[in-house]
Each structure stands twice: as C-alpha cells, then as structure tokens.
Write a sequence for this structure.
C-alpha cells in the first residue's frame, strides 16, 4: 500500500522529466536519464503505475511533433521516450527478469470486475475532481507546450478507461488472459484529472491576475470561480479533518502494542519455536470507540510474526499468488485464477471448507501436512474459535481478549514426511536457503516430502547427484530418493540464470546512468 502511494506521488516528476528530455535545449540527456530513474522507481514501487506517465509524455510528444524540425525529431524522441524505457528496464532487471522467468509459478489474482471499476469512477470525490478538471480548458488558449500538456492529460484518462474496459471485455472474458489487474489503472485516471484541475486553477489565477487589462466579465467570472472552488475544497477538507478528530485516527504499532498487549503475544509464540503458525484470517481488525459508532481498522500485522518471533506463518496476509498460499483458501482444489476478495472470506472458510462443515480430523491432518503446530485467531474469528473450542484435537492455551492461541494436539512437528516402511531420514541442518537431510535407509522408489514451497530456484542433490524436485498436491517439495543407506540429500536455494543476468544488467545500467550524468554535466560546462 505504501508503495502504491509513493508511486502515485512520483507520477508528475516522471512526466516533467520526460517533457524536459524532449524540449530542453541543454542537458537533454540528463533529463532523459532522470526520467528513466523515476520510472524505474515507480516500476519497483508499483508496476502498474509506470504505464501512465510514459504514455502521457508520448501523447504530449505527438502534439508537439509538428513544431520540431525533422532533423531533431528522431533524436529527441530517442532521448525523451526510448532512453527512459531502456533505463527503466535496466535498473529493474534484477527484479523483473526473474519475475518473468518464473511467472508460471504465480497464480493471477483478479480482484474486481468491470462493475467494480465503474463504481470507482463514481465513488468518493471523483465527480468533484472531474468538474474542477474542466477549468483546464482555459489553458488550451495558450499555444505550444501548455496546450500540448493539457491535451495529453485529457487524452490519458480516455485511453486508460478504454484500455481497462478492453481488458475486462476482451482479454479476460473472451481470451482468458488474467495477468493484468485492470482495476490498478484507475489511479492513473484519478491522477490525470487532478493534474488537469491544478492546471485549470493556475489558468484562473493568471486570468484574474491580469486585472484591468482583462475584460470586466472575464475578471469577475474568474474571481467568483476561484472563490467558489476554494470554498468547495475548504468544505471538503474541513469535513475530512472533522472525521479525523472524531476518532478516525491511524493505528500505530506503539498503540497496538499497548492496547492489545502484542509483546505478550510474541512471547507466547516464541515459547514453541517448532512448526508454523496458522493465522485463521487474512486481516486482523482493530477497533476504536468513536462518536456515533466504532471505527474499524483492518491490518496485516500478523505478517510480521516471523520478524517478532522467528516463526514461519501461513495466512495473515492479503494476496495469495503462490500455489501453496492458495491452499489457505481453497485446499487442494486451487483455482487457476482468484476472483474473490480474500478478506471477505475471513472466518468463513479455510482450506476450501466452510467452518460449519469443517471436520476436525481433516483440519488436524492439514495442519500436519503443512507443518502447523499453532493456530492464531483474533476476536473477530468467531466461527473459527467456536470450532476449535469444541474440538478435542485443538487445545486453547492462551488469550488476551484480542488474540487466541491454540495448540495442535498429538503432533510432533516434522518438516519431513515419508513412509517409514520405505524410508528413514532426519534433518541435520536447516537455514532459510539450505536444508541437509541424512538418509539412514531408503528402499527403491522411496518418496521424500519436504514441507517447503516448491519454488523453481530450489535445487536438490542426493548422493552428490542432481535430483528432480516436484510439487505435491499442496505445492510443497517432493522428490524420489535413490535406494541406499547413510547418505545425504541437500536442498539449496540458489540464484538461477535470470537472477544473475538481471543483477548484471542492473549494475551495468547504474554505471551507465551515472556516467551519462557526469558526461552531460561536463559537456555543458
């Protein structure tokens, strides 16, 4: 979420750098490199937001192309449009290249449909912003760059809305292409409208500032319009501040620590270091008493359990892209595409079963298969807590009124799974990137399960020879070990060709950007 907001804020900087790379008489190369750096930052913060600023610069250039000499057109376009793309791809290659190389591992998450998109076009203060944006039409009277920028920003939301509708109607509904999440582009529609409103207000100020040189009608109309807009915006701001003062305040970690005794929760979880912690909801809700009701604050605080306790977790987060993470909601019947808003499923179902139809022996077996020894519920998880309280297979052993901990009964945690009649093995060493297993005895065709997600970068060797890792029904690692006794199986998480190539490209790109800035500065001097 923070990355989304930061990427949103960098939008106008990227547009400004791109325009300067196209129009500046001096240090054009430096501006083009700067645009690429800003676009690279946006791409890392939130990939979807990188499209709109570059598209805005492109439309701007198409509006200005007639005023540029033919001899300059190609060179300026290369520096202002092509160079930023190359710099962006180069600086982000360390992340983007591995993502593309392993994209088959992820599961698309489609969070909204076209109705949801149309709702966002009518929600909140968007109609007010759209009305304010109409004032930007005054800037069309100014020739050259101002007019080109206004036209580009007017064309941008139209293009984005058309693209979003195309994604839903054609790519998703007709072709089954789910990689893009079209709802993400709605932010760019908002931002173009906001920039147009700002340009329009600036134009009104310029008109009003002309004073006696402007016609009386223009002078008074502009002043009245400015006063009306300031009044509307002041009312909107005052309403927001009033809600803030009424108790709609942010929930900080220090406040949560004190009110919900989080340090005690971390301590209790640390007492049982073996096994994973299963959080029964994607969100934890904090509540503040406020005039007229209770303020509800959803949080993904439980994703920090590994930080505070050193224990692995399942659940407690919003997105579930990997096959193993999808198991949290759907069990072994994982869909190819997630269409549901996951937080709406909180306390409704787990592992593909609703709580009112859950079998406790089956849930106990799922915990064993996923290496879960502790279950964490929040006070809102009424169905989950009721089920666990009734079952003899789960023991409630601690709560502070907000959080409730349950122990999985009669389960000795083991990260390995195998048939004792065919195989005997034990873990000798385990870190975040390496696992060494001693095989005491293995029959021909013996199968060894490792309760770790089967991500493509894991590599296995048995008796010093490479062996193939496959994914079991839950998306965990599974391998066939050779027959024999007293040998080692090693699992190691190592960077592959995509990771190494991406890192090298990013390093080279950083050197090129720095060298380009230095060369540009020296050339100007």
């Amino acid at each position: 979420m923070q990355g989304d907001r930061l990427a949103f804020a960098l939008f106008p900087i990227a547009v400004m750098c791109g325009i300067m790379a196209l129009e500046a008489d001096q240090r054009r190369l430096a501006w083009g490199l700067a645009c690429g750096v800003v676009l690279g930052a946006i791409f890392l913060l939130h990939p979807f937001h990188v499209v709109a600023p570059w598209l805005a610069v492109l439309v701007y250039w198409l509006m200005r192309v007639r005023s540029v000499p033919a001899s300059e057109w190609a060179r300026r376009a290369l520096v202002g449009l092509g160079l930023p793309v190359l710099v962006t791809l180069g600086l982000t290659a360390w992340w983007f290249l591995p993502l593309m190389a392993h994209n088959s591992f992820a599961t698309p998450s489609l969070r909204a449909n076209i109705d949801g998109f149309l709702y966002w076009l009518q929600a909140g203060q968007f109609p007010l912003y759209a009305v304010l944006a109409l004032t930007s039409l005054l800037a069309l009277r100014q020739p050259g760059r101002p007019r080109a920028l206004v036209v580009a920003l007017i064309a941008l939301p139209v293009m984005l809305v058309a693209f979003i509708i195309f994604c839903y109607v054609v790519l998703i509904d007709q072709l089954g292409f789910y990689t893009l999440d079209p709802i993400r582009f709605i932010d760019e529609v908002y931002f173009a409208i906001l920039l147009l409103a700002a340009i329009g207000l600036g134009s009104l100020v310029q008109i009003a500032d002309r004073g006696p040189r402007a016609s009386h009608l223009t002078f008074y109309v502009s002043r009245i319009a400015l006063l009306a807009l300031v009044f509307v915006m002041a009312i909107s701001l005052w309403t927001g501040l009033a809600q803030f003062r009424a108790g709609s305040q942010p929930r900080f970690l220090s406040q949560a620590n004190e009110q919900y005794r989080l340090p005690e929760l971390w301590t209790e979880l640390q007492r049982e270091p073996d096994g994973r912690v299963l959080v029964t909801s994607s969100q934890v809700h904090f509540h503040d008493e406020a005039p007229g009701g209770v303020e509800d604050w959803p949080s993904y605080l439980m994703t920090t359990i590994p930080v505070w306790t050193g224990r692995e977790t399942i659940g407690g987060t919003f997105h579930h892209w990997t096959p193993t993470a999808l198991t949290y909601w759907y069990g072994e019947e994982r869909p190819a595409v997630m269409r549901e808003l996951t937080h709406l499923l909180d306390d409704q179902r787990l592992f593909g079963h609703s709580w009112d139809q859950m079998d406790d022996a089956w849930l106990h077996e799922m915990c064993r298969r996923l290496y879960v020894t502790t279950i964490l519920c929040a006070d809102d998880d009424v169905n989950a807590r009721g089920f666990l309280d009734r079952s003899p297979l789960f023991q409630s052993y601690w709560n502070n009124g907000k959080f409730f901990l349950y122990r999985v009964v009669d389960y000795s945690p083991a990260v390995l799974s195998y048939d004792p009649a065919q195989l005997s093995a034990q873990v000798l060493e385990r870190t975040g990137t390496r696992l060494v297993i001693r095989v005491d005895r293995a029959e021909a065709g013996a199968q060894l399960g490792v309760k770790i997600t089967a991500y493509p970068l894991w590599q296995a060797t048995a008796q010093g020879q490479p062996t193939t890792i496959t994914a079991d029904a839950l998306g965990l690692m599974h391998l066939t070990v050779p027959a024999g006794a007293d040998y080692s199986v090693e699992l190691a998480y190592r960077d592959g060709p995509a990771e190494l190539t991406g890192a090298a490209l990013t390093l080279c790109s950083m050197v090129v950007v720095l060298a380009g800035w230095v060369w540009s500065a020296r050339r100007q001097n």
